[in-house]
Amino acid sequence: MSLKCIAAVCLLANLALGLRYDYHSSKPVTRSLLTYYESVNATDTCTYDVAPCDPNEWRRLDGSCNNLKHPAKGTYFVPMIRLMEPHYHNGNEPRKAADGEDLPLPRKVRTTLLKVGKSSHPELSQQVPSFAALLLMDTISIHDIEKMVLVKTDCCEPEHMNDPECTPNIIPEDDPVHRFSGIRCMNLTRPQTYQDFHCTSDKVPSPIIRATPAFDGSSVYSQFNDGQNARSYEGGLLISEEENGRRFPPNGPRGVCPLNVPPKETRCYQNQMNSVLSHNVYMVWFFRNHNYIAKELAKVNPHWDDETLFQTARDINIAVQQNMQFYEWLPSLMGFDNLVNAGVLSKNKGFRDIYDENSYPVMTLDYVIALRWFHTMLETTAHLYDKDGNRVGDMPFFDVLFRSGWLPSDNNEEYISNGFIRQPCHNPDHSIDFDVAERGLPFLQEAVDIPTSDVHKNRLFGLPPYVDYVKLFNDITVNDFEDLAPLIDEQQIYNLKLVYKNVTDIDLMAGMWSERHMEGGRISKTLGDIMVDALTRTIKGDRYWYERKNRPHAYNKAQLKEVRKYTLARLLCNVGEGVTHVTKRGFYNVGPK
Ligand SMILES: *[C@@H]1O[C@H](CO)[C@@H](O)[C@H](O)[C@H]1NC(C)=O
Ligand SMILES: *[C@@H]1O[C@H](CO)[C@@H](O)[C@H](O)[C@H]1NC(C)=O
Ligand SMILES: *[C@@H]1O[C@H](CO)[C@@H](O)[C@H](O)[C@H]1NC(C)=O
């Protein structure tokens, strides 16, 4: 069972001749530190071995040796960085309001700022939030959710409310929904930190993440980043199993799928995450895409061995995902010209190189938390279509959470794939869908309000107030609510005043929910700013970035051109199931044109 892995201890085998590094500092571990780790039984959790780097080797599965001067930077489990100093109260408690009182309850913030209901996006399809799920899982992990639903389930019991591992969401007396239900509390556990595992003596809480920080297909090649297990060592292929005439990643005891409905639903991935359906669909597509590419490569290069086929196929698969993310998905959200002006995209189709060897692959905590804004784009009822475009039914997305067995059964994959193509996503117009608001983990919890937890997490991670981000990105000093007018409409400012007493109290997420969309784009302006910052860091810090001419095993011009042609539409045609028609611009709705 994978629960043992929550402590991320079940990871790397010792590598001969390598050097042992400390995760938190990314430096070689000192003898005295090692002695300390041994005394608290934390050696395997807090340190790991890195085999010597070869400047010409392929991108490693564990992310090490990306930066040759700092081989340990860029591995999974290395701490995120912060855009600004954290704001905590008393060390690691959520910050207080300006008047010294507690901030308003997160649930109060959510119910005041976001309406609940259906709202279809006028332009974008379900592919947009679904691909976002893949990107998120590529750089974060869901061990905290697993912990909350499977291990530490009693945070709302009065005797556990003050348990340091618990941080439940209290529901106000006058709650618009739960004054009728009698539910007064929603379970939530505190995010796991290096401090919890004795991996640092730093006082500032530093959350743990289990995926590598680069966009490198972590969730396809193994969430555990010991992806050696996922390889078949033949023909460069990943191990796959057939079900219903289609190929899927293999089952294994490590998978956690408590909601599979037997006897039909048996699939539960051993090396990949078993999480939300939209992630699972994309993960399966990119998983198959690896094997598709490896087989095509073997046809034209019959002399290549397994290693060359595997590494080349992986490199292309990652490049395809990165290109899709940067040149298709991002422009649909932020506008192509905005991204060119911000330096995230290049206008010409050739090589580009903004690599900086003093940088390294790393995520900002601000980015990882801000991405939760995408919950406001979730349409939670999946409309199912057959391959001829007939609507054949509905499936609530959250009913198939932690239920990997559903997708391979019957014609579900055909129905869901055609639904992604034909259904609009939710319009982020200061509203959210019902299930996101009240039914985040059906069957496992009575009530979970996901965006309420998102606000709560801003505070648990010590993110600075919203106005600090406004200052950082717009150089606007906000002294009172009216100063927000350049970013937020009057009506939303009014709503913010209903919950927050002082403008400096506003949480980042609450500000982003309230903002107008960026000019030329379709998302919150501050979210866009945080994404631009993080994505530019990614390109600068990743020595293996696919657009570079001078990287190990770089493409030639013609090869790069082929990668750029590999669109979402192409992917669906190559590896989709029951997909007969696609939209050329894959992230946009089917329209009259
Ligand atoms: C030490 O930690 C490992 C996991 O890292 C665990 O399996 C083992 O039981 C622990 N031993 C003691 C004495 O706590
Ligand atoms: C809001 O809080 C700041 C300190 O964070 C304080 O300087 C300011 O006077 C407060 N504004 C009002 C209107 O109370
Ligand atoms: C919180 O968890 C407990 C124990 O698992 C469960 O009985 C309760 O229904 C949960 N609360 C909500 C609001 O879901």
UniProtKB/TrEMBL annotation:
The keyword Hydrolase does not apply. Heme b binds at residue 375. It holds the Pfam family An_peroxidase. Residues 1-18 form the signal peptide. The keyword Cytoplasm does not apply. PROSITE patterns: PEROXIDASE_3. InterPro entries: Haem_peroxidase_animal (IPR019791), Haem_peroxidase_sf (IPR010255), Haem_peroxidase_sf_animal (IPR037120). GO terms for biological process: response to oxidative stress. Keywords: Heme, Iron, Metal-binding, Oxidoreductase, Peroxidase, Signal. GO terms for molecular function: heme binding; metal ion binding; peroxidase activity. This is Peroxidase. It comes from Chrysodeixis includens.
